[in-house]
Write a structure and sequence with these properties.
The chain has about 300 residues and is mostly helical. The chain has 14 helices and 2 strands, in the order ααβαβααααααααααα. The chain has a two-stranded antiparallel sheet.
Length: about 300
């Protein structure tokens, strides 16, 4: 045993460090996957023994019936369109702006201002969407809002794609910027000095050194983001528009629609909600595999797997 420990000291240390995360993944990510069977059942609680296992064992199997409510409704096209288009815009805009801001922050040589700007950018990430919704309401309230004289924003859906996109960028920009900034700061500064001696401008240095160096990080984050293209940020689409009915044509996404079904307490709503979640995750998995296959075809070294 002593010989084994001495020979595998590093392996044992790393394994012990990983154990809490592994246990967390098993308990909170893998075990709940068994509940996906509810997506194929008319799940109902049984008063005599309302435990989850008893409800699953005694609920009627309905096949793919629960998946119909996602596509059978007259709002199916609207919520799927909104989910896909918003996420596509979020991925492209957040990625490009985060990289640009990270490059700008990496050029700040005064540490106080660099840390200050990073803190100011990162702080909104910790703010709840509930609180952020009241911030937006303070600006757009038709009676007392700062922009109340312009129009009644909560009755006019025209400007809400821009409002939601801006709110998402404001909240998530700092988190993504910090990731890219960490990758940029790991680049050897001698490469920039050599490029400057050769007459390369700052713009040229970014294109020749910075972007190619952080390209693996960009690709990994892009693939992971594509995997969630069918999952909308519920807090954003529910709290920012204040759940206003007239705005549903541009704010309704799959997650908010499922929540409305649950609120209405429709019979079998639990099975419908589980079916929607299963559908989102299966499509997300397919998107990840597809995006990674494309990347592997174009640049095998930077593929996720």
């Amino acid at each position: 045993m002593k010989k084994f420990i001495s020979r595998n000291r590093r392996f044992i240390a790393i394994t012990l460090m990983m154990m809490p995360v592994a246990i967390w993944l098993i308990l909170l990510r893998y075990l709940p996957m068994g509940g996906a069977i509810i997506a194929f059942q008319d799940y109902r609680p049984f008063p005599a023994n309302p435990t989850l296992l008893n409800n699953i064992l005694n609920s009627r199997f309905v096949g793919l019936e629960n998946f119909r409510f996602i596509f059978a409704t007259d709002r199916a096209w609207i919520m799927i369109r909104n989910t896909l288009l918003y996420n596509a815009v979020f991925i492209v805009l957040t990625t490009t702006v985060s990289i640009a801001v990270a490059i700008c922050l990496s050029e700040i040589r005064i540490k106080f201002f660099a840390k200050l700007y990073q803190t100011l950018l990162f702080y909104p990430f910790f703010i709840s969407w509930v609180v952020a919704g009241y911030f937006v309401f303070a600006f757009l309230d038709p009676t007392f809002g700062l922009l109340s004289d312009v129009r009644n924003w909560y009755l006019d859906p025209t400007g809400w794609p821009v409002i939601l996109t801006s709110a998402n960028l404001w909240k998530n920009l700092g988190f993504n910027t910090v990731i890219y900034l960490a990758a940029i700061t790991s680049i050897n500064r001698d490469m920039y000095e050599a490029a400057a001696l050769d007459g390369a401008s700052k713009w040229k240095q970014v294109w020749v050194i910075t972007i190619p160096t952080i390209k693996p990080m960009i690709i990994i984050l892009f693939i992971l983001a594509v995997g969630r293209i069918f999952n909308a940020d519920f807090g954003l689409f529910w709290n920012i528009p204040q759940n206003m009915g007239p705005l549903q044509s541009v704010t309704e996404v799959i997650d908010t629609y499922v929540f409305r079904v649950m609120q209405a307490n429709i019979a079998g709503a639990m099975g419908m909600a589980t079916a929607a979640g299963l559908f989102q995750n299966v499509v997300g998995f397919i998107c990840i595999m597809g995006a990674n296959a494309i990347v592997r075809k174009l640049d095998k070294e930077n593929a996720l797997f």
